[in-house]
Design brief:
single chain, about 250 residues, alpha/beta, about 35% helix
């Protein structure tokens, strides 16, 4: 895809954040893309689910907005989140192509729920870092959390390992849902074997997005679920550390 083609590629975004600090290294622009095939129980952006929602735009228009902040994000870059950015592969490829041409560091925040098409392989080549959101290594639990199998997610992670692509793992810790220590031991062992995981971020479950579910008339099943304590988070962090993984 050349620059001219990239600028005219169409897609949909949900929102644009100019100064993100928790979505990759440094200060970052964050583009929340529209559409997601998963229905995670703890999702705090349900407004990004529907593929027909958000705003229709071109990659060139989004990139021009990013460039307004180019001087502020030196040492940082751009993160494409969602929703699920990999669900709009041609649009994402176009955005990454434009960023690469200008030397802007790129991060893709994804669950990895995607097939390994040609467009997806080009996305991997164009991306500097992936934030890979692992829901659960246990197939049954992944189905409970997301409504889908984790087969595609794990295959995508394996493909990133095969190409030695930089990865940060994100794991939302939900008490009494995905905090079983035997499953987390299995996950830590698998991540260690991948060999390309630079660090693991354990994200304590929170209910700040619950009001959105109610706003959209969606049943929120985690109302009675407690947020994990600092001690619980640290105990889980130690599992990953014992397997030689850096944890934040």
């Amino acid at each position: 895809m050349n620059i001219e083609q990239a600028r005219t590629e169409k897609g949909r975004i949900s929102t644009f954040e100019s100064c993100g600090t928790v979505d990759g290294p440094g200060l970052r622009c964050v583009v929340f893309m529209q559409g997601c095939p998963l229905r995670c129980l703890y999702c705090h952006n349900p407004e990004t689910w529907e593929f027909g929602g958000g705003d229709a735009t071109s990659a060139g228009e989004v990139f021009d907005e990013i460039c307004k902040y180019k001087n502020f994000i030196r040492g940082g870059g751009v993160t494409f989140s969602g929703g699920e950015p990999m669900a709009q592969p041609r649009f994402l490829e176009a955005l990454l192509t434009l960023c690469r041409a200008e030397g802007i560091h790129t991060v893709v925040d994804t669950s990895g729920f995607t097939r390994l098409t040609g467009a997806v392989k080009r996305i991997v080549e164009l991306t500097d870092l992936f934030l890979l959101d692992i829901k659960s290594v246990n197939a049954n639990m992944h189905q409970v959390i997301t409504g889908e199998s984790n087969e595609l997610n794990l295959a995508f992670a394996e493909s990133l390992a095969a190409t030695r692509t930089s990865v940060w793992i994100r794991y939302v810790l939900v008490p009494r849902l995905n905090d079983r220590e035997d499953c987390l031991e299995k996950l830590a062992q698998w991540l260690r074997k991948l060999g390309n995981v630079e660090k693991v971020e354990i994200l304590p479950f929170h209910k700040m997005g619950e009001f959105k579910w109610k706003q959209y008339g969606l049943p929120y099943r985690l109302t009675e679920t407690s947020e994990p304590t600092a001690e619980q988070v640290e105990r889980i962090a130690d599992i990953f550390r014992r397997h030689g993984l850096c944890v934040e």
